[in-house]
Amino acid sequence: MLESIGRSVLSSLRGSGRGTLLLCATLGDLRYAWRMRAEILNQMQVVAVGSLPLVIVTSIFVGAVTAVQAVYQMQAYVPMKFLGTVISKSVFIELGPVLMALVVGSRLCANYAAELGTMKVTEQIDAMNIMAIDPVRYLAMPRFLAAILMIPVITIFCDTIAIVGGYVASVVTLDVTSGTFIEGLRMFYKDSDLLGGLIKSFIFGGIIAMSGIYFGFNTEGGAEGVGQSVMRAVVGSCLSILVADYLLAIVLFQIVFKGS
Amino acid sequence: METSNSTAVPMPPPPNMRLGDPSTHDGVAMQGVSKRFGDMVVLDECDLLVNKGETLVIIGRSGEGKSVLLKNLVRLQEPDAGGIWVEGREVTGMEPPDLRELRKDFGFLFQGAALFDSMTICENVGLMLKEHTDWDRERIRARACECLALVGLDDADDKLPSELSGGMKKRAGLARAIVMQPQYILYDEPTTGLDPITGDAINDLILKLQRELGVTSIVVTHDMAGAFKIANRIAMLNRGKIVFTGTVEEIQETSHPLVRQFIEGRADGPLGVF
Ligand SMILES: Nc1ncnc2c1ncn2[C@@H]1O[C@H](COP(=O)(O)OP(=O)(O)OP(=O)(O)O)[C@@H](O)[C@H]1O
Ligand SMILES: [Mg+2]
């Protein structure tokens, strides 16, 4: 019992060691970004294309649900002019970055893990190594860069649509006037909220990419191994995002942006 | 069951080759290389010498570790023990940049071809040129087509690997392995899955590469007729060790029980089946 716990702790330590090494190698290979620009653009397209419907639907309903819940909580206690404030703050700081990282991120992470895992088990990564082409530079770096650039872009997109969704839900179904909503939106708006959210989603993008790439590169076995890797990658990415979200909340909003 | 050749105790005799100091050998030298997966020992202190410019054929039962041996040789898998030298340079323990430099001199045909399935055949073949030379697109394409023509795939260049048959993939993999004109080529079953005529054409190509470019090759094959045609020497892998090496004549005349059974393709003999 103790032994098996010890072994799994050791193996996860070894795993995070190798993960850190992979991250360092990937960061180091960012210097080849210009040479690899075609592949990077290609990977950015992979992130964006096809996630749009997912992003739009998720965002509209996130905004709408936040509006409904906020009105229910605020009824009779808080003036409705704060509705816009509540919606925009929760969307900018928390809901936009985290939900996009979980929803779009899982999709992306699964894509990376499955594609790289299949390449691993069909010896394509070996082939790349023997051709003296570094898989980290050729496969990992473009995916990593695409994720850290595109996840924030998608988050901005999500923020916008979610606010619109909240606005429509408030005005159409909740008896809040358009003017009240917009006044609330403006009243306590802070750049640091939006910026903090974007910093978060930038880091989430890195977590998503590294999780998919790490588990993809370490796939063993055949189709079953690929399935395992995808599962581990998505679970790893989601858990890390939630933990990182907590840590970032402390760092960003308790320390960096405090009092701004 | 008792045949004239099988001795009572089929003990493999020591390898009939002299390993001098492997670090002064001008070809490829492998000394005491071991590789295990979990509890299964695949290579057991295996020694192998490949002289410069020769074609060495490795034979052995399915699952004996021939593919593992090739991969360990270029450190696609890390050997657990032992040393590997190429032209006197020690490959085991080489740092990644040196290893990459060394690998540019190696072509490797994978048993399963291992083509990049997101690229066309032509891009697969041209990838190394694109990465390691400053050639322009036209020149790379011309060279890729030339290599594809050598393996009889002139008209498949814009197809994706998923659109090819197994034998065509194998040949495309071969074209990719030779595109940089490497000094060393490792072929893992180059003719398996090909019809006899295409297979013979591939054997001719292997001979041609050796004669015209002085390539040093290691060929893993199960096709004995092909092996006799292309080999300078033949080595047999059994239970993780090279148990026999010899020229084609030597292997045809040997009374070594394991080798006799193998080249005659008999199920009864010292190499137990199942
Ligand atoms: N990555 C691996 N993990 C675990 N075991 C492996 C791995 N690769 C190979 N093996 C085992 O090593 C042994 C040798 O495999 P290898 O592929 O080298 O056989 P082979 O001689 O090439 O056979 P064949 O002629 O059928 O291609 C097999 O028993 C195989 O199960
Ligand atoms: Mg094999």
Could you name the key traits of this structure?
heterodimer, A: 260 residues, mainly alpha, 9 helices, B: 274 residues, alpha/beta, Rossmann fold, six-stranded mixed beta sheet, four-stranded antiparallel beta sheet, 34% helix, 22% strand, globular, disordered N terminus, binds adenosine-5'-triphosphate, binds magnesium ion
| Global Rg of chain B | 19 Å
Rough shape of chain A? Answer: elongated
Q: In CATH terms, what is the architecture of the domain at 1-61 and 71-105 and 233-274 in chain B? A: 3-Layer(aba) Sandwich
Strand line-up in the sheet with most strands of chain B: 6-7-8-3-9-10
* Binned strand content of chain B: 15-25%
Rg for CA atoms of chain A: 21 Å
SSE topology:
The complex is a heterodimer of chains A (260) and B (274).
Chain A: H1 2-28, H2 37-48, H3 52-74, H4 83-121, H5 124-130, H6 135-173, H7 178-187, H8 191-217, H9 223-256
Helix pairs in contact in A: 1-6, 2-6, 3-4, 3-6, 4-6, 4-7, 4-8, 4-9, 6-8, 8-9
Chain B: E1 28-37, E2 40-50, E3 55-59, H1 66-73, E4 81-86, E5 89-90, H2 96-103, E6 106-109, H3 121-132, H4 137-150, H5 166-178, E7 184-188, H6 196-213, E8 216-220, H7 224-230, E9 233-238, E10 241-247, H8 248-253, H9 257-264
Parallel strand pairs in B: 3-8, 3-9, 6-7, 7-8
Antiparallel strand pairs in B: 1-2, 1-4, 4-5, 9-10
Helix pairs in contact in B: 3-4, 3-5, 4-5
The structure holds adenosine-5'-triphosphate and magnesium ion (MG).
Magnesium ion (MG) binds next to helix 1 of chain B.
